[in-house]
């Protein structure tokens, strides 16, 4: 089953933190598939935000950290709609960004595309602006930050050209923050 | 009532202010508002009035208000360019003034330099106009927007041959950053300050992508238009900056800005600044060119592909994709121009450091920079004018003329000094006409044969990286004008593609080409793109659309000097029905 939950997180790091907290409190293994999902602005002026989903072995009691959740037909909390959206995207493998997954801890340093696929749950590697997937021996610099996405029902890692003829995940670990003066 | 007689001497180059007190019902102004009379046939006084009306949004003047399909377009304005400025030789009747509308100073929380530092560099690197755009925000709104003004006024005094506008980098509610700038005058500071306090996304806590915040952005543009109409300020412009960086400028927001105030919201950065950010370590930051290193977030438009977060040949995805978002806007027949700027905060390999004992929050600025003696290779910016240039065809050397040229789309952009000059004319083939230039509309008899005459002055001298760039190829891009988009979130248009390529392979002298559009039986637009030919790949919409387009930039290894492009803004060709 897929548990969706939503606390209205406004950033991906905040949502990832929540994802880890809930997985830990549920006693799930570290490689339980967990994702982040974007929830658009709501009709009552709710801000767009990030909800989460986790694959759970069966009916569970969501911990208090998951203030709004959806599991099967059950719904709880003010952001249950976002939680349900997350659970549905994950269940259908049609949307969401995957944070935890089998093999994730092994994806460090530089690996070939073939090693990356055979050593983890990642089904497919694609290269931005390229019609063809990379050859199995093309090296991918993981930057210890591998976040595949659900696309076409497949756990897909999007990569981009990087220095030295290698590839790197298209998602950069620490994007430059918006440089505006927020003081 | 003031007649605005040179209330600031930095206006001294102008021919004089418009003394328009008539409203549109005044008979004296009748020729000015009669759009069947082309600009070029108006007596000077009436032309001046017409410009005033246009700026004030009082005229539904062809292009700027209704789009090319909405009314008679403007004919090419007759000009009498002055010799002020940098001694620039007029070309095609205009002084082509290179400029940059995106520059930060010590009044930005992530800046370092004095205004005069930026202006002296920009001037030395050949810029005729610059806009100081420190970040909007609480501290800037409270302190910086006031304090920077005397520095700008002093820079205007000491560097006479570069025009220095005051603006700010607006945190557009619900969207990215944008340049907002005004023409100099008594109201420039108070108007910018009120604008920032009322409509900045950071000041107002309005950054998230909600319909309410989107509406606040439109209200901000309406405020600027109103300030011009009420003559609080002589003029104002808005351009969207690094539009694809975070995916948060949705297509409908861009259309919304443009359609709400077409005389204010005139375009976007075709190429972002920070062009040194992809220089590999240890000689550069080793990041994404343009500091395009972001990924989709909750405020991003979900329809944008992952490619949109990257640059292509240093240009933003919206512009670099033939048949993509920019073309989908142009295909509506409405103006939306592109620019290229430095976004200079902290210059690559510069040896200075922020002034010691700075307290930005208390003072609204950092203390003056000091010599540190250690080259900062972690910075990804070039000085204004050093690499990115926005060339504006101005009728004279004045603040007003630069803003008018930008608004008219008489603009082309280049990187690394790829070419020196570009003259483009669309005209009826073989009729001996002069035709119209960039941003303008050629009206022809239906079925008339039309040609595009292109004259390019090649680099001819070393750029600031000490080589003479060679132009390898010029591409003509053409698309159908099909009217307002039914889907406000559309970001492709089916008919636009590269229709002709000219091989050049030279770096000095002048080359001329003529592209025959053939018999034009429907509204179309054409635009140009050129390259040094060092990197290329089929376009994102396929080789049939763009066989040799810009290639996605390599993260951590993008030498900006070995991947140079120029882009022109479009010319429309409109057959009479």
Any descriptors?
heterodimer; A: 183 residues; 2 domains; six-stranded antiparallel sheet; 3 helices; 12 strands; globular; B: 577 residues; alpha+beta; three-stranded antiparallel sheet; 12 helices; disordered N terminus
Could you give the topology of this structure?
The complex is a heterodimer of chains A (183) and B (577).
Chain A: E1 2-9, H1 12-25, E2 34-39, E3 49-55, E4 68-71, E5 74-76, H2 80-92, E6 97-100, E7 110-112, H3 113-118, E8 124-127, E9 139-141, E10 149-151, E11 154-162, E12 166-169
Parallel strand pairs in A: 8-11
Antiparallel strand pairs in A: 1-3, 1-4, 2-3, 2-6, 4-5, 7-9, 10-11, 11-12
Chain B: H1 30-33, H2 44-55, H3 62-66, E1 95-103, H4 115-124, E2 129-135, H5 138-158, E3 163-171, E4 177-182, H6 188-199, H7 211-229, E5 236-240, H8 251-260, E6 265-271, E7 311-312, E8 315-316, H9 317-320, H10 325-330, E9 337-340, E10 350-353, H11 360-363, E11 370-376, E12 388-394, H12 399-408, E13 411-415, E14 419-428, E15 441-444, E16 449-458, E17 471-480, E18 497-506, E19 510-519, E20 524-531, E21 565-568, E22 571-575
Parallel strand pairs in B: 1-2, 2-3, 5-6, 6-9, 15-22
Antiparallel strand pairs in B: 1-12, 3-4, 4-5, 7-8, 10-11, 12-13, 13-21, 14-16, 16-19, 17-18, 17-20, 20-21, 20-22
